[in-house]
Amino acid sequence: MTTHPPRRGVRRAVFPIAFAGLVTPLVVVAAPANAAAADCSDVSAYPWTDTSKTPDERAHALLEASTQHQKYRWLVEQPANSPEQTEFSGVTYPVQVPCTPTVVYTDGPDGVRFTPGVTAFPAPISVASTWDEQLTYDRSAAVAAEAFATGKNVVLGPGLASGRTPLSGRTAEYFGEDPLLTGVLAAATVNGLQESGDGERAVLANLKHYVGNEQELDRQLSSSDIDERTRRQIYDLPFEITMDRSDPASVMCSYNQIDDVYGCENPLLDDVLRDDLGFDGYVLSDFGAVHSTAPSLDAGLDQELNRPVFFTPELLDQALAAGEVTQEQIDQAAFRVVRTYLAGGLFDHPLPTTPVADAATPEHEALARRVAAEGSVLLANDGVLPLAPTAGDTIALIGPTASSTPTDGISAASVCSMAWRFNDAGTMECEDLVSPETAIRERAAQDGATVTYSDGSDVTAAAAAAAQADVAVVFGYQRSGEFSDLPDLRLQGDGDALIEVVAAANPDTVVVLQTGSAVEMPWVDDARAVLETWYAGEQMGPATADLLFGDVNPSGRLPMTFPVSLADTPTAASPERYPGTFADGSTTRPEGSTEIRQVEYSEGLQVGYRWYEAQDIEPLFAFGHGLSYTDFEYDKVKVTPASTKEGQEVRIRFRLTNTGDRVGTETAQAYVTLPDSAGEPFRRLVGWEQVTLQPGEHRKVEITLTAEDLRLAQYWDESTDSWQTPRGTYQVHVGGSVEATAGTTFRVR
């Protein structure tokens, strides 16, 4: 974790939007002839094209040459990004000044969404399970290349949330429940998207959604009510870490209210996001997340997504005339957008004249397969894996998501990516999908074994198929997506019953899970192995076969806790926490009501694994957990210096040994518990290192907390409105999950 992908200068960007079903049609209006004929190489006429000047100088020059309503164009996505068009949903603008770029936004946390001819990479929750910065960077660079080649230069992603409830419909779109893991991998994503072009392209990233957007239920009509310490340590911190390690072009403000003020008109945008966290790009709204003109501009919103609604020329003129906004605020918002486009290279690296029809490459296919394999987590295994069939053996595959042939509308394509809506198709096209059935048949044939397949719709037939096989591999699924939360944490399609029947018929049953969040496992004691593959993208089949047959040694680690039951989760304690309540105390929205649902974040800091430790609740599988086909041992843990002053570097050292009989990669994790005075009775992740060892090999591992990293050992003091380092004894534990037992202490005096 202490090494970072090389940074080669930030590239930034913007779009007519690619959100299926949400696009306002653009009316194409011809540009004046003089705009079309502009000689953009004439830097004396168009000084904003002069690459010898700084982005700030170029942006000022452009805005000085602009009329008021040309400035307004930058404050709305469509007119900002289609410079020669003048009419947008009935709102008319003057044509833009010459020599400004066409910019196209695409939704993209998991790849270039809703676009044919691109690679369907695994979902971000799978990327998070790799715990691998470089792999995350490489995958994001591939996404950037495909976005630009298909005519898009702003990617709306990565997504950041804090995993408050595993019921959230967009859990698969995020990086789990820990601020550090989320921040580190979000930064690697930003760097991969923005820095990987080597002068051949310009693509910008967008962090979303700031802040407290932790549920889909009533996301536009709810208030996330969070105390300041909790917000700073749990919900702001991932954004802060991301900005410390990368330079995102933009941040998207969220749909929800934060303490009764909408995210896109909340003072947090300027007071915290910019002033405290150091963000210097532009703030973009979510689609339909703007509710006002003056309050939004006053709070720091720079650009309204999609069409003009609240940032129209008419409404801006009225707000300016009424003294509700100032010319300086308008100029500053336009400047932030233009400067970011310039600094990110959008002006100097135009989109291709003709986008390619197929941007996927064999290299990207191989990368998708690697992410899918390394992002899968072996949750349980009593020795049945890896499979080692001999000639004549039979493997029974069971379940609709194992095959590309649909059963009642469900197939491998249903879990290639997260759903756009709960029962809709996925966010990725998955044109080149290879199903588990196809890949496992091919791999089994190498050993002379045969594969049978049952879709599981007839449990009697499924049990018979399992009973006749040497080993049964049953697939369980859970589909989730934007716009709604999960109703529970159970497998869908009667998956639990199917697994129980198969396990009863064959004692050698392996369960492969294809989910976007945690699931309950009432059958876990009856299965010999459980492999979580998430939404594994187009290469789900080959990656699953690689792991089942041991061609790849599992190395994925959980980025979120799997509880025994939904009742054990932090928000299950009261309806005020989730789903939130109305003024009369009810949880059900009356028909036609627009009352704001109040969601109380009263669990405070006890989010994710912090909750389970503080409440002494044993999870089904702990945060950071993941098995391998080999074993690792930790010993000789030492912290230097053992006693230190505030602000000094701390080094956590230990010996890691591969005690098994095959090469393997271990994600060695370090956790710290603050002194009692901090009032936090739980561990927090402070670092990790990924180490690959041969059988019997050992290595000395060091995880360093630099002065910049010491925020991870601080708490937010509301009385002083600042971060504080508590003095006293810190507990340190290292191991393969948050339940690590090897440890020591150090003191801050």
Care to describe what's here?
- The protein is an alpha/beta fold.
- It is built from 18 helices and 27 strands.
- The strands form seven sheets. A six-stranded mixed sheet has the order 11-16-15-14-12-13, with helices on both faces. A five-stranded parallel sheet has the order 3-4-5-7-10. A five-stranded mixed sheet has the order 19-27-26-21-22, with no helix packed on it.
- Strand 4, helix 7 and strand 5 form a beta-alpha-beta unit.
- The longest helix has 18 residues.
Summarize this entry quickly.
The chain has 18 helices and 27 strands. With 749 residues, the protein is of the alpha/beta class. The chain is globular and about 80 Å long.
Topology:
Elements: H1 33-36, H2 55-64, H3 68-73, H4 77-81, E1 87-88, E2 91-92, E3 105-107, H5 124-130, H6 133-149, E4 154-156, H7 179-195, E5 204-210, E6 222-225, H8 228-245, E7 250-253, E8 257-258, E9 261-262, H9 268-274, E10 282-285, H10 294-299, H11 313-321, H12 327-343, H13 362-374, E11 377-381, E12 394-398, H14 436-446, E13 450-454, H15 459-467, E14 471-477, H16 495-505, E15 509-514, E16 529-532, H17 540-548, E17 597-600, H18 609-614, E18 632-640, E19 643-644, E20 650-658, E21 664-673, E22 684-693, E23 698-705, E24 715-717, E25 722-724, E26 728-735, E27 742-748
Parallel strand pairs: 3-4, 4-5, 5-7, 6-8, 6-17, 7-10, 12-13, 12-14, 14-15, 15-16, 19-27
Antiparallel strand pairs: 1-2, 8-9, 11-16, 18-20, 20-23, 21-22, 21-26, 24-25, 26-27
